[in-house]
Amino acid sequence: MAAIPDPIPARMKGLNRAEICDVNFNEFVRNWSGRADAAPAPDEAIVDGSALDAAGFRELFESQLISRHLDLMARVLRVQNKVFYTIGSSGHEGNAMVARLTRHTDPAFLHYRSGGFMAERFRKLPGMDPIMDSALSFAASKEDPISGGRHKVWGSKPLWVLPQTSTIASHLPKALGTAIAIEAGRRIGHALPIPGDSIATCSFGDASSNHATAQTAFNAAAWTAYQKLPAPVLFVCEDNGIGISVKTPSGWIAQNFSQRPNLDYFYADGLDLAGGYADVQRAVEHCRRTRRPTFLHLRTARLMGHAGTDFEIEWRSIAELCAVEATDPLLRSAVIALESGLMSQDEVLAQAAQHAEQAHGLSEIDPETERALVSAIHPA
Ligand SMILES: Cc1ncc(C[n+]2csc(CCOP(=O)(O)OP(=O)(O)O)c2C)c(N)n1
Ligand SMILES: [Mg+2]
Fold first, then answer.
1. At a CB cut-off of 8 Å and minimum separation 6, what does 125 contact?
2. Which of 16, 219, 221, 278 is deepest in the core (most CB within 10 A)?
3. How confident is the model over 232-288, as pLDDT tens digits?
4. How much distance in Å is there from the Cα of 169 to the middle of ligand 1?
5. CA dist., res. 112 & res. 380, Å (int)
6. Domain total of the chain
7. Alpha-carbon distance 99 to 111, whole Å?
8. Which one of 213, 244, 253 would you pick to mutate in the ligand 1 pocket, going by the greatest count of ligand atoms within 8 A of its CB?
């Protein structure tokens, strides 16, 4: 984790936390003065002992950057009234590991902070554009194939991301139902459109795990497994320690879920690709092999507030904000890229700049995209 500067410089006391996180990243990489190892080969571990290889790390880091720069783009375009939805994925980009370790045919029901997951799942099929697809959704554009402009919704038919909203936890029972249907379909000889050993995956926030609808799904999943009936659902709780402005008591998710009979608990550090990868892998493989309901507690952070309208600086101390921002998973990924010798400082900065340009270029350069982005407010 990056250090919290003491004293906190003036530029880190501003209102615009999105800009601060972006500057933090660039300054951190530019000023890095650690020692770089000899670069690993693509199929070698990115860090000694890591389950993630260098080629995999490179792609996951890229997915994280794509997601982050879409968030930053949304904050800028909101001011221009082109984008309305600024709930982002910043701090949650490690969920790309879940996408990498599942198949694109594993039905996914996603939390609204799943930009990293989507960017990574897009790799599984050629010829698709994760940036344009996400931008249409951010803008609630009527051209968005999955929502038709109703809301920001992650979704894709070819990628088996079933569109739905996640903020009332209503997708958890649906995910469980899908998992049970995969098995039931197999049992009754119904031709499935996906492989018979598929699992349903479902992500949600720590606060949402308390929702009655979520608890219904956990209970029904455990009730099913108790009877030795298969229910291959992977519940992924993206624990950033807060829901809007209410903090989750520390340790609550682990204590509430690690001892539940018939809901098998795994923990992974979603802020650290090198360390977290093996734990995510264990959870995914357990779910697929045992066909049992599985709970993956994924550590995340919430950067840049609940949404662009949440001026956290008005209700949290600067020291607290800086402490959360120091856990930015992109800073951690930058350290891994640099210390492993896989990338130079210039390469990391150039890659970040390229994704920033791609995201911003959507509205500023391509007139067709511009039309698509604004169609929600100015319908033809
Ligand atoms: C039934 C219902 N109550 C309240 C809300 C408002 N709401 C939206 S997100 C949210 C909290 C989400 O917190 P968490 O699940 O931890 O996800 P995070 O945003 O931290 O990723 C709430 C209360 C809602 N959407 N639906
Ligand atoms: Mg939360």
1. 104, 158, 159
2. 221
3. 999 999 999 999 999 999 999 999 999 999 999 999 999 999 999 999 999 999 999
4. 9
5. 29
6. 1
7. 13
8. 244
